[in-house]
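Take one protein record:
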Amino acid sequence: MSQTLAPDAAAAAADAAPIVSVTGLGHVYPSREGPVHALADISLEVGQGKFVVIVGPSGCGKSSLLMMLAGLRHQSEGAILCDGRPMSDPDPDRVGVVFQEANLFPWLTAIENVAFPLALRKVPRAERQARAAAMLELVGLADARGRYPHELSGGMKQRVSIARGLVQNPKVLLMDEPFAALDEQTRMAMGEELLRIWSETGKTVVFVTHSLTEAVYLADEVLVMSARPGRIIDRVAVPLPRPRTYAMMASPVFGALRERIWQQIRASAR
């Protein structure tokens, strides 16, 4: 006999549903030497508002998987759902993307770079300026709105890129090694800044990195991929409390989590 959920229970069930769901995903691409199996049998779920980090050896398909989640590349098999609907093409209302390079237009100011996606969608000028200004304030760059990219540091450029990824208010923010080109001090500061932004916005974040320290510091859960063909070989929950602190990096729990991830990656590459 079917049973109708009470309003509160129905809302709780909806909240519990994953915002991103991947089932049986695989990808094969052609090459001169024959078909290359890049990804195989990937299934994963990302809960609403979670911070999930993907790690794995070079060439395992982390970035390819992220581009498929963004609808920028089509998988050979399997299904990707975002907010309950297939993700077959880019949809900035559901998914925003921050790339490894900031890719700012040098002839546009910071606020114009952030507002650019809204201009493409013909959002009225006053509205897009207001929304871009709000995002620059969120990332701590309100005073830099009139500066051009050559007047910004590497970390500031990446914050502009994050603001641009958020300006269309997507449900999910995908980040492909956004801090890889930064020096260690700036990278640590940007990690702390990202956690602040994530906490304030409540966005769901899926983040790709090669840094195991960065992965454990940022994540609710770390997904570990194998060498090609890339598979999910471990799901590591990070029980460290929030807000995170740099002091946690010296804790036995932090070290044990990082070592577990490293051993999985090392074993898969043999």
Q: What stands out?
A: The helical segments are 7-16, 62-69, 110-120, 125-138, 154-166, 184-201, 212-218, 252-268. Confidence is low (pLDDT under 50) at residues 1-5, 9-14. The CA atoms of residues 224 and 234 lie 5 Å apart. Residues 48-72+88-268 form a domain with the Rossmann fold fold (CATH 3.40.50.300).
